[in-house]
Amino acid sequence: MKSEPLERVIPSSLSLLLLNEDGTWVVQCLEYDIATQGSTPKEAFDDFWRAFIGQIAAYVSIGEDPFERIRPAPEFYWKRLRECRSIDLDEIDSGIIPELSVDARSWSNVKG
Q1: DSSP state at residue 45
Q2: What is the DSSP secondary-structure string of 10-29?
Q3: What is the CATH number of the domain that holds 79?
Q4: Range of 26's domain?
Q5: Cα separation of 106 and 88, whole Å?
């Protein structure tokens, strides 16, 4: 794979699941089995983006497809996603956080 700008290899949309597991917030990506955790939803999302972009940058720097080796998340998480409701990203800052799904593209736009 020829080295390309990151904008060309980042998917335009991802399915992310935000879960509270015993007081720890977990962000699980469904298309690619990448997950992070944090003490708050924002921390979990921030850590997810660092891990996700880091994954892309590491593979692109050696000329490989960053997602070729990453499988989708297990079916358990896809089932959980179907059972959740989508939220407006402003709800993350408001503290109204049930288990939910979020469009990653929207989250990245909010982050600036």
Answers
A1: H
A2: S-S--EEEEEEETTEEEEEE
A3: 3.30.160
A4: 6-84
A5: 9
Bridge-based pairing state of the strands 35-38 and 15-21: unpaired
Q: Are the CB atoms for 56 and 6 separated by under 8 Å?
A: yes
- Is residue 77 assigned to a domain? yes
- Look at residue 112 in the predicted model and tell me its pLDDT: 34
**Nearest partner of 25 among 7, 39, 10, 5, judged by Cα:** 39
Number of domains in the chain: 1
- In DSSP notation, 75-98 reads HHHHHHHHHSEE--THHHHHT---
pLDDT in tens, 28-48: 999 999 999 999 888 998 999
The answer to whether residue 72 scores a pLDDT higher than 90 is: yes
pLDDT band at 64 (very low <50, low <70, confident <90, very high): confident
Angle between helices 104-111 and 41-61 (to 10 degrees): 100
User: Does 98 map to a domain?
Assistant: no
Segment 59-81 shows an average pLDDT of 88
